[in-house]
Structure formats: C-alpha cells, structure tokens
Amino acid sequence: MSSTHFSATLQARGLWRLFGFFAACVLLALPPAGAQPLPPEDPEDGRTFRVLSFHDVRNNVRASFEDDPEETAIDERTLTDVFAWLAHNKYQPVSLQQIVDARAGRQPLPRRPVLLTFDDGYSSVYTKVFPLLQRYRYPAVLALVTSWLEVPDNGRVPYGAKQLPRDRFLRWDQAAEMVRSGLVELASHTHAMHQGVQANPQGNLLPMASTHRYDPATGRYEDDAAYVQRIEVDLRLSRELIEARTGAKVRATVWPYGAYNARALLASEQAGMPIAMRLTDGPNSPDVPLSEIRRALVVYNHQASDYAGLLRSRVEGRAQQVNRVMHVDLDYVYDPDPVQQEKNLSVLIERVATVAPTSVFLQAYADPDGDGVADALYFPNRHLPVRADLFGRVAWQLKTRAGVNVYAWMPVMAFQLPEKNPVATKVVVAQRDNGVAPAPGRYHRLSPFDADARALIGEIYDDLGRHAAFNGVLFHDDATLSDDEDASPAALAAYERWGLPGDVAAIRRDPALMARWTSAKTRHLIEFTQQLVARLRAWQPVLMTARNVYAGPLLDPAAEQWFAQNYEASLAAYDYVALMAMPRMEGQKEATAGAWLSRLARRAATTPNGLNGTLFELQAVDWRTGKPVSDAELTQQWRLLQRQGVRHIGYYPDDFLKDQPALKTLQRSLSVRSLLKRSLPGSPPTQDIPSQLAGLPGAGAVRTEGGVQP
User: Fold this and answer.
1) Cα-Cα end-to-end distance for the chain
2) Is the pLDDT score of 26 beyond 60?
3) Cα angle 365-371-377, degrees, rounded to a multiple of 5
4) Minimal CA–CA distance to 531: which of 593, 475, 487?
5) CA–CA dist 676, 301 (Å, integer)
6) How far apart are CA 430 and CA 454, in angstroms?
7) pTM over 0.85, yes/no
8) Alpha-helix residue ranges (DSSP H) falling in 104-170
9) ∠ at Cα 28 (27, 30), nearest 5°?
10) Where are the beta strands (DSSP E) in 80-149?
C-alpha cells in the first residue's frame, strides 16, 4: 500500500481529528529540544495504577495494512520492545486481583503499576503475546467477544462490515490454557455487541452497548428497561460461555469502543461483572471506581519510547491546550424537505472538515423565530415538540466524518412550553413598582427556583443524553438573573431559606443584602447547571462543559448584579467560559473594538486559569443591522487576540449555506490543521480507538474518547 493510499484510508475513518488534536498539543511554547516535557508521574500511593489497551499483534504490521488496515494493530517487534522497555524502566505489570486487593486495603500496589489488557481475542494473543507474558512473568487481562469464539473452525467471523477467517481469533482451548498458566484473566468484551445498532431514523449506526436501538418499523426507540435488559442478557450469556468453556471466573466487562453509560454499568453488575473498563486516558487514582477503569489505547505507530507519554497521559475530558470553535445553528440545516435537509447537512460536514476546527458548538434546540428561546427540540423528549429528530445524526456525522468534538448547545431555562403544560407559567418574573411580571426585552425563562421547572428541565437534558452521542455541553446565554429577578413565589421562598428577606424590593434597598443576594443567585445558577451536567454524564460519561458568559461581568465586577454571572466562579465551574467577546453587541464601533477586546484579553491573562479556561467567541453578524461582519474585521480581531496570548477562539454564527465567514478566512485563522507546520520531530504520536464500525452503512469511524496527550 502506498503512503498516499494509507493516508486516504485513515482519513476515511475519520482520523483527521487526530491531526487536529496533535496540532493543538504542539502549538504552545514548544521546548527547543523537540518533544514536550512529560506530565509528572502518578503518586506512589499503592492504589493508583495505569492500564494499556492492546489489540491485534502482527508480523510487519504496516505491510499488513495492504489487505487489512487497522490502526489498533501493532507490530510483534514493537510489543517485544515494549515489554523490555517496561522492565528497564521499572514499570511493574500487575494482575486485576492485585488491584482489587489494593483497593480493598489489603496489599498495596508496587511502584509504577500497570495493567496489560488485550481486546477482541485475536489468535495473536496466544501465538505472540502469551510467550512474552511467560518469559517476563507478566499478568494480563484478555477480553473476549464470545460470539466470535463460538464460530465453527471453518466459519467466518462478522467483524464490522468484514467477514474474517475463524483462525484470526482464539480457540476456546487456547484461552483455557492461558488461564491455567495463572498469568491471564479472562473478561467479557460482550457476546455480540462489538458492532453498531441503528440509532436514529436516518440510519446512523452507533456502538450497541451505549445506544438505545431505533426500530424503523415502529418509529420508536427502545425504552430504558428494554435497553438495560438487552445489555444484561448479552453480558450474562458472554460470562456464562467463558466460564463454561474455560473454567475461569469472569468478573469484568470491557466495553467495545469504550462506549458505555450508567445504565450499561448497572446491567454489567446485574450480569455478575461489577468491574468494567473503558477507553479513556489518565490515571486510575483512588477516586476512580473499578467500574470505570481508564485505559490508554495503543496504536500501530506507538514505539516503545512513546509509552512514557501513554503512562503519564492526563485525564480525558479536560480542557484542551487549543480549542478552535465553529458555532452552528441546526436551524440552518433543518428543512421540511428531507432531500434539501440532507443537502444542507452535506454542505455543513464538508465545510467543517475543510476548516478543521477542534470543536463545533451545535444547536440542539429549535428557535425558528430567533428569540433565543427553545420552541421545540431536535431530539426525542418528553416535554417539547420535536421539530426533527436531527441532532443525534448531525452530531454523529460531525464527529465521525469531520473529526471534531461536538458540544450540544442548550438553553438552561429558556424553554417555551406548550400552554397546557402546568409548568409553563412557572417563569422568571421581575419586581416592578406595580407588582411582578416578566421583564420585556429579556429571555422567557422557566424559574430555576421552582422544583417542577427544575425537574422538567432535568428531564429534557436526560432525554438529550439518552438519544445522542456528543463530547460536551454549551450552556446558552439565557442563564442570567438581573437585579430585579427572580420575584416568583418559589424564588422568594428560596431567599428566605438563604437568610434573606422574601421581598425583592427590601433586598434592593440594602446594599449589604443586595451583595449577598447577587452572590447567592450566581451560585444557584452554577449549581443548577452542574446538576444538568450530572444528568448528561449518566449517558455521556466523558463530557466537557462550557457556558456562555457576557463580557460585562469581566470588565466591571458590579455587573454581576445584572447578570448573576461571575468570571472567577465560572472558571472554577466549567472547562470553558465561552466569553461572548462581541464588540458590536456591546455597542463598540469598529474603531474601538480592538481596544475593547484587548481589555478582555488582559482580564483573562491576569486571572488565574483565565487564558486556559476562556474561549473568546466573536460575532460574525452585526445583529443591529443584520449584516455580516466583514472577513477583514474578523481576521483582525482573531490576530489581535492571538497576539495577546488567547488560546481558545471561536465565532457565532457560522452561515455555511452562504459561506459566511468565507472559507478561506476560516482556514487561515481558525483551522488547527495549520498548526501542524509548527510540530517538531519526536512529538508524541496520535491515538484512536478501533474503527470496526467505519465500514457499516450509515456509520463513520468510531472515536468516542481520546486525543493526543503531551
């Protein structure tokens, strides 16, 4: 296979995203010697450990890609070098039992402990890996897809869209022999869930273990009970087969593609396997339960020297060193004509893939009248109309075809419920001289103090997490309360519980009470969004968080009373403060916009974690006139912010149907691909997870978690 053909194959599997992550990791302050310094070693506490995830081991792995390209396969010589490297650097492979004992407070783990795992049950584990385990006396965990081992000797194994020869995989007697050696523990890699399942009406296939199946015959998704039962039945069968065929005791599930959720964990425990492993970089410190063990994925281009980086990689789901964001309205994709809608989606995917940002903030709610309030949603839910079951499909296509992180952009409180819904009247109201009423010119918002409203919003977020796969959440700019809000009955009762008067007018007359009230409201909104994050993480365990924050509270601390937003508190609460650095929205003219942006940049630079945690989001449209901001002006603003040390930059909106901003402008100013030229030899290689879903109809390459760690 030529290098061009090989590169094309990887690109088809969605791996351009890897190069974006790689570029992001090498942008800042590269040391002159070459590679970046490693993160610090894990603490020697006797309980923290690392895990490596291996798959197939081949002779001359690159040549094998001519017929069977698989980025998770590694060369036999590389594995030999890795085992020698581990021994030379005094890493000590440990068994799963040693980890269980250490967590139970019995025998602590040795220094530099690492668990070796091998997924899928390839025959190479017996022919190539097992002899090395015996030579070094290294323990390991072997995860088996039991339906594959049940295929007769002359049969074919269904592996994604391919049918592989049976001899590519272990026989039961070989697995039993490895167990009898005392070095190998067997785990379930499921019975028949190493594949995709239809996840939406458009036919996208998502990992079976983490996805509610969509039935095109009935137009319905399976409910939670049916989903959990399906997972449990599969896992129980897998465990029983392994135990019956080998005599081994099975206690661990290894999730295919690293994809799982809280209910899948429950199903695994009910099936007799309370230990579970995922694909997520980072240490397994004492706070990481054995039901969510992190594993670093090994891929074909990792050499022995790269394992120092793998074994010190940072925790997944933390803010990236560079985040470049396109903020996209799904309203622009939607069309009542399905054919036109697919054309719109194709234009969006091609544009994002060409620009190559790090992330896309993708609207998950419908706002056809442009008032910033959710009139409907783009995913199945219990409370609002579904304009189209579209968010899950677009998010998956962006992740797998354009290779970006997708954040679900959602309101916190701004939901326009149907009139018959009893919660529809439980809204934020302002104190007026003649009573209370919703303030004109502000968002229509459900009250964050009303228990029924909070429960309903939580259920909306629960439905979002259940019906889509995405990387993060962006909280809309509706999460505000002004200095005369909220005067609803539920809010007044909350103020009394805080030790304040249940009277907004009385609070406003006393500066000391006003200050306490303002701070308490700010905390309340943050706590509410964190509860919504928890609802999402039940379905999306690795989830980034961002929140739109207005510029006013950064430039004037007194402005907190008009927004219930605080910069420092937001930096502490979210991975990113998505700062609305929008000069024209704040009344700035083109001549003064630069100085205004510079003030914001200096504020971030002089605040602890400010530059690391702040994403500057520029405006691409002047909403006062309805006209686009010129490409020249946007480019000037991007360059100004970069000169001031700003790392995370985005813009809103992206009008992909009108090429605004212009594609060439975005490629020059926003693309992380352009950062590749700054990389140096010896930088850490990229990594990905298995892509067996890549060839299935309606599916792209699978990359649920991962990224390059410096």
Assistant:
1) 30
2) no
3) 15
4) 475
5) 18
6) 19
7) yes
8) 124, 130-136, 146-149
9) 95
10) 92-93, 113-120, 140-144
